[in-house]
């Protein structure tokens, strides 16, 4: 199946993933001269029931807007989109894998695990600098690309702290769709999100990567996943600094 958008043509190769409200396809992209630009990923909104369609189209448009506004090495890029289509979509870089699959394979070295954490931290620091809360940090949303770079992806639940008009429906969706293991206690209790809820989820990655045998890293883990938000790090940069010190064996 071929599709066109502006001066570009794309050919769908196969479906490579799907979730509750969308799916991802591997595509080939061609420019106006029919030159092959390469393989990319296209994410589309699924067909939805009429009562859900408008709300989820708004959610999808917001996802595209937020992710497309990001320009950072450790945040997945968006290149093209069509939000007016009956089935809205956007095109982004094609990942070679994700952190969840890499953890399951058990092939990451200690050095690679540290690199992953630093890249995720840098991506999250950047998002927070834009007043974005990711709200769904977990291994499957951290994509690995062929150059070995890991990038934060999936902006479906992202919230802009500058905007007070976010619908209650989307907040409820975020609470319902979040993965329990990575959700701070205040989310399930009161639906409260903050930088500290992203920090909680990031802290859980230390456990996923089996790095808690290091006493310093374990201390960072305990602080980042503390039950009370005020007991956690206030900023990802602070957590990153202490994590680097713990890994290098330097005193705080």
- Runs with pLDDT <50, length 5+? none
Count of discrete structural domains? 2
CATH level-four homologous superfamily name of the largest domain: Transferase(Phosphotransferase) domain 1
The residue-averaged pLDDT reads: 91
Order of helices and strands: EEEEHEEEHHEEEEHHHHH
Backbone structural class? alpha+beta
Rg of Cα set: 19 Å
CATH architecture of the largest domain: Orthogonal Bundle
Helix content: 25-40%
At the first level of CATH, what is the class of the largest domain? Mainly Alpha
CATH fold-level topology of the largest domain = Transferase(Phosphotransferase), domain 1
Number of strands: 11
Largest sheet: 6 strands, antiparallel
Keywords: ATP-binding, Kinase, Nucleotide-binding, Serine/threonine-protein kinase, Transferase
Domain Protein kinase: 10-252
EC number: 2.7.11.1
Protein name: non-specific serine/threonine protein kinase
Question: What does this protein structure show overall?
Answer:
- By secondary structure, the protein is an alpha+beta fold.
- The protein has two domains: 7-93, Phosphorylase Kinase, domain 1 (2-Layer Sandwich), CATH 3.30.200; 97-248, Orthogonal Bundle (Transferase(Phosphotransferase), domain 1).
- It contains eight helices and eleven strands.
- The protein has helices spanning 50-68, 99-105, 110-129, 168-177, 185-190, 195-208, 215-224, 236-248; strands at 2-5, 8-18, 22-30, 36-45, 78-82, 89-93, 97-98, 132-133, 142-144, 150-152, 159-160.
- A six-stranded antiparallel β-sheet has the order 1-2-3-4-6-5, covered by helices on one side. Strands 7-9-10 form a three-stranded antiparallel β-sheet. A two-stranded antiparallel sheet has the order 8-11.
- The longest helix has 20 residues, at 110-129.
